[in-house]
Specification:
The protein is mainly alpha-helical. It has eight helices and three strands, in the order αβαααββαααα. The longest helix has 16 residues, at about 135-149. The protein is globular, with a radius of gyration of 19 Å.
Length: about 150
């Protein structure tokens, strides 16, 4: 069987392992260290696959793994773009296993899902009555940028 890139949820333990030994890391440094320490054995052809937006697929998947770990409280961001492991993350690392199914049962993850649903379901705060065409354009651009982020 030929090697394959890990799925995003298969990066959970490697991310926690790197954070446990590295303290607080910048998001990009974390992604690179996980790739270099845990997936350097994969063929260069796999590691060079890019997403449609141009990001390396392996780094993208590690990034999604970090995002899910953050939602469930296994890692935290003390400042923008900085990541560190939590006590809960250290505990999961000691167990040596964390599946996507286990993560989705965590209270913090469930709460983040509820918060997302509530945000999407809430009516717009401020209708744009009397707005100029430029105001409408600016609002549209801001909405699109927010959704992309």
């Amino acid at each position: 069987m030929s090697p394959a890139l890990p799925k995003f949820h298969e990066t959970f333990i490697p991310i926690l392992r790197v954070l446990a030994s590295g303290g607080v890391l910048h998001y990009n440094e974390l992604r690179q260290q996980v790739r270099d320490q845990c997936y350097a054995h994969l063929p260069a052809e796999l590691l060079s696959i890019k997403t449609q937006s141009g990001d390396l697929l392996i780094l993208n998947r590690i990034g999604w793994g970090k995002a899910y770990l953050k939602r469930a409280g296994f890692v935290e961001q003390p400042q923008r773009a900085l990541v560190k492991i939590t006590d809960k993350g250290r505990s999961a690392l000691e167990k040596g296993e964390l599946t996507l199914e286990q993560l989705k049962q965590e209270p913090e993850y469930l709460q983040s899902q509820l918060d997302t649903i509530r945000r999407k379901a809430s009516p717009p705060e401020n209708p744009l009555e009397g707005a100029s065409p430029q105001d409408l354009i600016d609002q549209g651009v801001a909405t699109i940028e927010g959704e992309v982020k």
